[in-house]
Automatic annotation (TrEMBL):
Region (Disordered): 1-24
InterPro entries documented for this protein: Mpo1-like
Species in which this protein is naturally found: Spongiibacter pelagi
The protein, known as: DUF962 domain-containing protein
Keyword Coiled coil applies: no
PANTHER family from the UniProt entry: DUF962 DOMAIN-CONTAINING PROTEIN, TRANSMEMBRANE PROTEIN
Length: 124
């Protein structure tokens, strides 16, 4: 493969290595039910899961407080709290890149489903 065709395939996200997924080619999921086991695999570390839960609960608390007090400026904290705790979990404990970079909608849903599953005792 010449350099030009390699660059073109990397830019389109279609680069393959011996028939396997590469880092530049995100896996395609046909449903959230298919995605969720992958998502949990990306969150195997207990500390990472706990940080996700803390971030999610802080998002809910901050949202409720902001709505109750009409302090709308606090809403800018929501992505900082939610993603901040999650990304610390990924970069320092899970040692992987957050799934949100390649699967933003399913990852957002996965955060809340995982939080629910932890709170209901379905996950550690």
């Amino acid at each position: 493969m010449n350099t030009t065709s390699h660059s073109a395939s990397a830019q389109t996200g279609s680069a393959k290595t011996k028939g396997t997924q590469t880092e530049s080619t995100p896996k395609v999921f046909s449903s959230f039910a298919e995605f969720y086991p992958f998502y949990l695999g990306e969150h195997a570390n207990l500390t990472c899961r706990r940080l996700h839960l803390i971030g999610s609960l802080l998002v809910l608390a901050t949202l409720a407080y902001s709505l109750a007090t009409q302090q709308w400026a606090l809403l800018w904290l929501l992505p900082v709290l939610g993603y901040g705790f999650a990304w610390v979990g990924h970069f320092f404990f899970e040692n992987n890149k957050p799934a949100t970079f390649k699967h933003p909608l399913y990852s957002f849903i996965g955060d809340w489903v995982m939080a629910k599953d932890i709170l209901l005792g379905r996950l550690k």
